[in-house]
Amino acid sequence: MEIPQNECIVLAARPSGLPEAACWRLECRDVPPVIPGQVLVEVDTISIDPAMRAWMDEFCYLGCVELNQPMWAFGIGRVVDSASPDFEPGDTVRGLLGVQRYSLIAGDELETLEISDEPHSWHLGIFGMPGLTGYFGMTDLVQPRPGQQVLVSTAAGAVGSVVAQLAKRAGARVVGIAGGTDKNRFCLDELGLDACVDYKAANYEQNLAAALPDGVDIYFDNVGVPTLDMALRLMNECGTVIACGAINQFQHMDRVEGPTEYLKIPERKLSFLGFTCFHYLERFHEGVTALRALVERGELVFKEDIAIGLANFPEHFLKQFTGQNQGKLILKP
Amino acid sequence: MEIPQNECIVLAARPSGLPEAACWRLECRDVPPVIPGQVLVEVDTISIDPAMRAWMDEFCYLGCVELNQPMWAFGIGRVVDSASPDFEPGDTVRGLLGVQRYSLIAGDELETLEISDEPHSWHLGIFGMPGLTGYFGMTDLVQPRPGQQVLVSTAAGAVGSVVAQLAKRAGARVVGIAGGTDKNRFCLDELGLDACVDYKAANYEQNLAAALPDGVDIYFDNVGVPTLDMALRLMNECGTVIACGAINQFQHMDRVEGPTEYLKIPERKLSFLGFTCFHYLERFHEGVTALRALVERGELVFKEDIAIGLANFPEHFLKQFTGQNQGKLILKP
């Protein structure tokens, strides 16, 4: 078969702080021949996630990308050539396909996706890492109860919006944190949260405390310090803090800020529980089934922010660090 | 009845860093008359604990002591006068009696102690806060299992030595951290730990890693950063970190250092659980009974470091911050 050249976004320079456009270079490269065990995938949908920022540094959070190599990203595509017994041309697969048009990847790093007629992008969002992170966080790590006060950072985001909605369904009072009027409106009007606090507004911490007169029983942290410290100050005795990452910290993994309020953990008998959705790999099917049922009944709202063309990757990627994304960030190459 | 003047140690100045002798003043004060609800106690045994350092600052960890007021401390004494229906002269009581000879205190802040023929000091150590902290930490918050790797900071100390011995009894491999040759010898020879690492020796972190070739499943933290960060780097997937305080941090509660390695918590699905023994107030009797059985069978080793005379308080208190104490610090006024 005839394969055109691969177009890919390579990491041209490591960032300091915000990952500006100068970090990236769009390149054309030959696709090497498929060797035994490998699969060639034509990528059709690329996921843009906060953890990718950490992969750009030399300091590793589940590894790091080498300079002048294609940027890592989760994605979905169609098998076009296979030297693995597990895959055939035409299969729809998901894996760390990278920010590129073609991905040559070991078969054992891929999974076959069973897709109904929903868009592929849903399997990178609501049925993918972010949705599953929210699902296992709110069903396995902690189970919110009616009357509890649940606080969720990045409440308009891909993970936070699922966390917040599942906590609401469980009967808790849910307060979100989001940046800007539009996202705050989305949280209140579309997700149905009880309150939402704008972290970009003046008096952020006072507003947070005012929205939580009965303190916090469960805090779901996606951002890290300083919000993590503010939440620790508001935690009720025997409360639970859950962390699956920290977008504020991914920008400087060489000098992560630890929560200086962590002594609230012994003082108030808190549990600080961490996880990533990869700790639940063997339960993904259960998670997707549960989320699909909610989506089909119209009981789970989610938004996507889709860009088209690899050349738009740098700008689209940057949105999540300035809070300008309007939903789960997706790139079509 | 005739009460002599009260001798007490007052907080003369707030410390910066080490709590030097200049922070304290020995004073004589009149004992005011007992008003309804109050009890007058003649103190016979005073507990010296790390958390007292935090109480010296204006930044509160369970409150703070006012300048020129008697220093807080847990202690045991004998009721000499009572205007509370719950106490009679001659009762042996425990409470926040302060670093002084006589304590005038509300009856509802006291508990009656049932003492056999053991020394009162045991009820401030092995049967008191430190022993109970170790007991509930290792039986309620986490239950070590055979084959697990347990790491304990301040392993020669009042809390750590109980934690380490209970983990050994549960069948775990236990590695201690202690300062200096004597304490390391004590941990190996008398507590029976599998290994002990000297935090004052060169190459501390390398030695720690070398003592834990299979990583750490349970880490009991009494110290905070930097040891907490070192332990986080060594934690195994799904491990548990327990914290009940942090002696390194109690010296500067206005600028506590947070653990910069806290993102290991999500990365490795760790649980970071906090508590103080006061969260188990209603289970103290159970804890003391269990600890007493072990002590009576000679299966729980503990050491006390007792000084006599209020004038020796400043020097005795300082020992726990320089690591010079040889067991639970006790002062007889």
Polypeptide structure, described:
The structure is a homodimer of 333-residue chains. By secondary structure, the first copy, chain A, is an alpha/beta fold. Chain A has 10 helices and 15 strands. In chain A, strands 3, 4, 5, 6, 7, 14 and 15 form a 7-stranded mixed beta sheet that branches. The first copy, chain A, has a 6-stranded parallel beta sheet with strand order 10-9-8-11-12-13, with helices on both faces. In chain A, helix 3 (160-169) links the parallel strand 8 (149-152) and strand 9 (173-178). In chain A, helix 2 packs parallel to helix 3 (160-169) and helix 2 packs across helix 9 (284-296). The longest helix of chain A has 13 residues, at 129-141. The radius of gyration of chain A is 20 Å and the shape is globular.
Write a brief structural summary.
The structure is a homodimer of 333-residue chains. The first copy, chain A, has 333 residues and is α/β, with parallel strands linked by helices.
